[in-house]
Amino acid sequence: MYLLTNEILSRQSTWKMSECDVYIFLLSNGEALKEHASVNHIRAVPYEEGYYPPPLWNYKGYYIVFLLKAENALQTATNMVTLYNFKKTENLLLLRPSRNYLLASTHSLYSVSTGLTLLDFWSHKKFHKGQNLFPKKTNNLKGAELTVATFEHPPSVVYVYDENNNLRSRIGVDMQIIHGLTKAKNFTVNFKEVSSVEKWGFKYSNGSWDGLMGEVIKETADISVCNVFNEHFRWNEVDFSYPYNFMPGCFIAPSPKPLVNWISPALPFTWDTWVSIGVSLIVGGILLAIISALSINKESSEFKSLTYNYLYILTSFTMRSVTIIPSYNPTRIYAGFVWLFSLIISTGYSANLVAFLSVTTTTSPIDTLSQLASSGLRFGAHSFWKTQFSGSSDPAVKYIFENLETDLDIYTLFEEVDKGKFALVENKQYLEVNRDARFTYGDEATIRIVGECLIPYSISLILPKNSPLTPNLATDLLHLFESGMIQKWQKDVVTLYRKQFEEKRKLKASLIVSGTKALSLDHLQGVFYITGIGYIISAILLFFEQIFKPTTQKSMTMTDN
């Protein structure tokens, strides 16, 4: 037993949790306890390097406050229920003398009433009602109103508007959870909107927060909810409920785009195949000239021309018949193998060319973070993701971190992703619902989630530090998760959210024509480009030939003379 002084109340050892955790106060005037209980001891000490010292109060302890005099500072009911630390303490028993009785009372959590609830009275060495003197108050909040901070973020929170664009209701996975808790804990909700700019909250250099985090830290909201990741850098600031969902963070990027059709004639072979064919043509022409020159039986004079030999090999590549056939065995054997090689190459090309001319080919999809980093896209995200990427040693992630833009509107950023300018990182279920609802037309989506995602995150409610609700919500949230209700609500809200964009999707899908098509000029434009290039090269050669023709003729005339 100690004499109650400010020094005793300010010791960390006084409030250290133990197996017993019972605090008995015998108060004559109560001024010291009243003063101490009115202070938020977490925020009373300056914030330093992400750390707040332990509070000078044990919120999970059992408090028995015996008022020895009627004029005690805590005697007034208003004082007891409005003091900061008593409002966060569930297990409180107030004993007050009254005539021949000792009254046992307690307070109500989150109640707007300043009155105390009479539990029992003591006389003749016993309590007469036999009630539990430390009832579980968070199991029944008796209709108290709790403030819940949130904002729209499908499928966690979806706003439903009437024909006049007035907010009619809030639906979504997280809203269903709140509605379920209101029934389980018997409380009502006053929703508080967080701006679309602040969202989950940003931490400033002075340690303050805005957004959902700021509302809870400042205790202007009893609960904040909207797909909040249970992250370690927030643990010193708020309390997290039991996780009710788990979701990875992913990037969403443009779907593969159609390649321009003018390059279709080159697509049946890969670039290394084309290089090999080109080398074969060059080597083949040179070898044909060498064989013809070294043969004992001289071939036709045309084979003495290197350009003719190249044309001869090229003719075999294009499966065209040749006017001159080698006369002797060495050249014939060589030409035969060239024809066999050309037959295989030409047949493979012709068979594959039909597919590339009739079907629109696309660019390669982005499936890894390395491909994403080298894609040339800009990267957008909420500022939260800066903290997630900052410590990574992966070169691709470091590059994304260095180029990540956070001063953007996430909702409208999807349009920039669709245009092929941006990649966006967010919770996977948020990306999925926006992709399916806004950018999927028929069976085709114009944006896609990158296959390589980040680690899964736990999703929880956030509450003020030392909130009495925190330990008591775990059972209800666990039941919701294990029952499969959360997964069902997610499917329901996705279906409803998709309906908001149904007309837009139908209009876009109607423009996608499927089925067999005749080859048009669009499909064959590459062939015309090749022909045009051939015409240009021929014209250039003809031009130079005409320039040098007079000189050649003059030389011939002088020789004749």
Structure explained in plain terms:
This protein is α/β, with parallel strands linked by helices. Among the domains are: 6-127, no CATH class; 268-358, Helix Hairpins (Orthogonal Bundle), CATH 1.10.287.70; 527-561. The chain contains 18 helices and 20 strands. It has helices at residues 6-9, 31-37, 77-82, 84-87, 173-185, 211-217, 271-294, 306-317, 329-358, 369-373, 384-389, 395-402, 410-418, 428-438, 474-483, 485-499, 502-510, 521-560, and strands spanning 22-27, 62-67, 92-98, 101-106, 117-123, 126-127, 144-150, 158-161, 167-171, 187-193, 223-229, 239-240, 245-254, 378-380, 404-405, 422-427, 440-441, 444-445, 447-449, 456-463. The strands form four sheets. Strands 7, 10, 11, 12, 13, 14, 15, 16, 19 and 20 form a ten-stranded mixed sheet that branches. Strands 1-2-3-4-5-6 form a six-stranded mixed sheet, with no helix packed on it. A two-stranded antiparallel sheet has the order 8-9. α14 (428-438) packs parallel to α16 (485-499). The termini are far apart. Mean pLDDT is 82; it is low at 552-559.
Low-confidence stretches: 552-559
N-end to C-end Cα span: 138 Å
Rough outline: rod-shaped
How large is the share of residues in beta strands? 15-25%
Tally of alpha and pi helices: 18
Radius of gyration: 40 Å
Structural class: alpha/beta
DSSP strand count: 20
List the helices and strands and how they pair.
Layout lengths: L5 H4 L12 E6 L3 H7 L24 E6 L9 H6 L1 H4 L4 E7 L2 E6 L10 E7 L2 E2 L16 E7 L7 E4 L5 E5 L1 H13 L1 E7 L17 H7 L5 E7 L9 E2 L4 E10 L16 H24 L11 H12 L11 H30 L10 H5 L4 E3 L3 H6 L5 H8 L1 E2 L4 H9 L3 E6 H11 L1 E2 L2 E2 L1 E3 L6 E8 L10 H10 L1 H15 L2 H9 L10 H40 L1
Parallel strand pairs: 1-2, 2-3, 7-10, 7-11, 14-15, 14-16
Antiparallel strand pairs: 3-4, 4-5, 5-6, 8-9, 11-20, 12-20, 13-16, 13-19, 13-20, 17-18
